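Sat 14:20. Reprocessing the chain from the morning session after the first attempt stalled halfway. Input below, unchanged.
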Amino acid sequence: MRASLIQIAVDEGESVEDRRRRVAALVREQAGADLVVLPELWTTGAFAYEDFAGEAEPLDGPTHEAMAKAASDAGVWLHAGSIPERTASDSGSAAGGALYNTSLVFSPSGELAAAYRKIHRFGFDKGEAVLMSAGRDTVTVRLPETTLGVATCYDLRFPELFRALVDAGAETLVIPAGWPERRRAHWTLLAQARAVENQAFVLACGTAGTHAGVPQAGHSIVVDPWGEVLAEAGAGEEVLTVEFDPARVAATREAFPALKDRVLGLAPPR
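Finished this time. Tokens:
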């Protein structure tokens, strides 16, 4: 299976509309990949809090339209990163609805296969944690060769979410992010930890550039079920492409059946 992680640079001098067109072109260039992954909040920048409300869009908004077309043109499964989503209010008005940090996953035909609203919001008592509502539902997506478990950025720090995804059948954990450079060591460490403890592939796609004065870590990473780093990007914008065998998940879990020894949160038999 071939995956391409597109580590987008968010430049404050580039309009959201221009970036959307540029990213769609990058997705089309990945024709031949099975899965393409984009970062978190690449339309605005993950730390550009003041732009969230103004750039928020419904699920079927302009990013949906552009990414659905790009996925269809390239013939790829596309995890289109996340967008600031605005839901309709009780009266039906989009202006008064809640904000979510929402990931979109498209099939090779351009259909929306899944949407995931980020459960763990970053910022403590400010930023995303105050401006956006929390999602409640875990999301998995079945591809022909593997089942994706979907999480976003700060979710990476909460292992119980990934246990729930594994219980739901996840074999490949996909994590778009806008992770800051100052905590890059945590990014790498946690990506490997989630892979090892869940005996799953981890595809973690970050952003490059600077978001509202916050330098981004970049260093998108692909980790196998034993914790080995298969590929890692640098700090700038690039496309990280890797071939991996999804069958290694079942082989790893059979050879070292640690998940069967779980006591707390024991999953029901399947």
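The chain has one domain: 2-261.
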